[in-house]
Amino acid sequence: MSSVIRSEFRKLTTVRAPWLLLAAGPLLVVAGITGLVSSGGNVHDPATQRAALAHTGLAAVFTLVFGILAVAGEYWHSTITDTYLSAPRRGRVIAAKLAVYALVGGCAGLLSSGAALATTAAWWAERGGQLQLSAAGTWLTLLGGVAANCAFAAIGVGLGALIRNPAAAVAVALAWFAVIEGITGQLLGSALARWLPFYASEALSRSNLQATARLLPQWGGGLMLLGYAAVFATAAVFTTLRRDVT
Amino acid sequence: MAEIEVRRLTKTFGRVAAVRDVSFTAPEGKVTGLLGPNGSGKTTTLRVLLGLVQASAGEALIGGVRYDRLARPRQMVGAMLESTGFHPGRRARDHLRVLADADGIAARRVDEVLDRTGLTAAARRPVRQFSLGMRQRLGLAAALLGDPRVLVLDEPANGLDPGGTAWLRATLRDLAREGRTIVVASHVLGEVTLTADHVVIVSAGELRFAGPLSEIGDTHGALESAFLTLTS
After folding, report:
1. Residue A85 touches chain B, beta carbons under 8 Å
2. For residue B85, what is the nearest residue in chain A, using CA coordinates?
3. Cβ neighbours of residue A124 under 8 Å, at least 6 residues apart?
4. Cβ neighbours of B72 in A, within 8 Å
5. Cα distance from B163 to chain A (closest Cα, Å)?
6. Number of continuous H segments (helices) and E segments (strands) in chain B
7. How many CB atoms lie within 10 A of CB B122?
8. Contact status of B52 with chain A (Cβ, < 8 Å)
9. Nearest residue in B to A1, CA atom
10. Are B11 and B18 in contact (CB under 8 A)?
11. Contact residues, chain A, for B39 at CB < 8 Å
12. What CA–CA distances, in Å, run from A160 to A94, A153, B140?
């Protein structure tokens, strides 16, 4: 098992694309917070500070795509054949990818949270606000954002193993993110909508984009995302085990 | 004990039977040529043997064991398939290191197989810069990485220049002489007569011949006429 994990790490460290993708996370955070402040966010309002820091969770869109490419990218480049020749017990490959991608996704989230904190501090200093590091929400917001980055990387691994075409998998994920979940949420009503994955992620990362929705508590959102990751991972393992590689 | 045994193997994709009740043995220390027209079931047979495709019936064993039961698969079986791909941005040496890591093979072996396949000078170039022949050599390097007892190669001469083809032939003969079991699927009958001891001929998913090449005659002409008769 450890050899499969080592191999997965080496796959990541020997190509550039995943790192460019993950680097987009902190950039999105910096841009998002800058936009929030320059569009008139009040730096004296604790809620604005929380909203700024909550941008960490938005970077999870990149760890999701990063995760999708773990398996779907291998099908795209036909490297999956060699991967399964090395590890014919395919459950191990999926498990190793889940572990490695969740860890790297979490680290990317950590960088994004650092970027969020630094950008917020810089803008608050510039605008004469007082950054409330000791406020109860500050660290929980950052922590939730990091956890969301980690969870979406794992969800991506499962999704990319289910939909092996990377473009299709990314399109499905982004369509769900941008459109489908919102509509589904409206159909279900806010009492049920809050159980959906991106509502759960908003609860976890405290980034209430859809302020009308009644969200789960932060820990509840975290558990729901963990559940989604587990469901996708299980489905991925079961469909992967017997599928012919041609 | 590292012979290959295919026993009453059948594989259907939907309603199409790609392989029907095929049995043959590839003995140790010999090169076995697996021949057949396009779509005859050669590649499917090799994929079942390597655990990439599930048999519908029957089995394919390596030294009496199914591929997915091998503890260190690359150290028992080296394989090169036509569909094996490379990440275009990964350097050749890194590609081999990824594979070595997965099977607990020492990094020293990576440099050895690069040397053996004549890729040392190109080792630090990304695969996107490689010609077809160089990719083929890299595929062979990957197959040789675990110093395996068994080699399974699908059209290994594809894209090699005459020098590369001669090198491949000599390499396969050497490897067989060391007691390894070698199976080569190929269209190039002339090449098979120069390298193979045994031949297995399949057509439309069914076995047409399995036995020593000498039973057919080891000239290109004899093999070609036998091939055309058996597969028509």
Report:
1. yes
2. A78
3. A43, A49, A130, A131
4. none
5. 27
6. 9, 9
7. 20
8. yes
9. B102
10. yes
11. none
12. 11, 10, 29
Q: Is B204 left (phi over 0), alpha (psi -120 to 50) or beta?
A: left
Domain ranges of chain B: 4-231
Buried-exposed string A14-33: b where 16+ CB fall within 10 A, e elsewhere: bbeebeeebebbbebbbebb
Residue positions counted in chain B: 232
- For residue B91, the chain A residues in CB contact (below 8 A) are 14
| Beta-strand pair B198-203/B206-212 | antiparallel
B/e letters for A209-229, b = 16+ CB within 10 Å, e = fewer, are ebeebebbebeebbebbbebb
Please check whether residue B79 touches A, CB under 8 A. yes
0.80 cut: is pTM over it? Answer: yes
In angstroms, the CA B151 to CA B9 distance is 20
Instruction: Please give the structure tokens belonging to residue B207.
Output: 């076995």
How far is residue B232 from each of residues A120, B128, B203, B204, B211, measured CA to CA in Å? 76, 40, 8, 10, 19
Nearest to A215 by CA among A196, A194, A187, A188: A194
Q: Which residue of B has its CA nearest to A90?
A: B68
Q: In chain A, pLDDT over 70 holds for what percent of residues?
A: 97
Res A168: pLDDT: 97
The DSSP result for A109-170, as a single string, is HHHHHHHHHHHHHHHHHHTT----TTSHHHHHHHHHHHHHHHHHHHHHHHHHHHS--HHHHH
Residue B161: exposure state from Cβ atoms within 10 A (0-12, 13-18, ≥19): exposed
CA distance B191 to A144: 63
Give yes or no for residue B44 having a pLDDT over 70.
yes
- Cα distances (Å, whole numbers) of residue A129 to A55, A56, A113, A114, A124: 19, 20, 20, 19, 5
Tokens read off for A166 = 């990377």
Q: Which two tokens stand for residue A129?
A: 């606000």
Residue A41's pLDDT band (cuts 50, 70, 90): confident
Q: Are B198 and B32 spatial neighbours (Cβ–Cβ below 8 Å)?
A: yes
Query: Residue B207: helix, strand or coil by DSSP?
Result: strand
Angle at A74 between CA B76 and CA B67, to 5 degrees: 25
Q: Tell me: domain B4-231, CATH 3.40.50.10540, correct?
A: no
> Quick one: CA torsion of A123, A124, A128, A131, rounded to 10 degrees?
-170
Q: What is the mean pLDDT of chain A?
A: 91
Q: How far apart are CA B225 and CA B232, in angstroms?
A: 11
Is the pLDDT at A42 greater than 90? The verdict is: no
**Residue A168 backbone zone (phi > 0: left; psi -120 to 50: alpha; other: beta):** alpha
Residue B131 token pair: 């010609």
Question: What would the two tokens of residue A220 be?
Answer: 């509840």
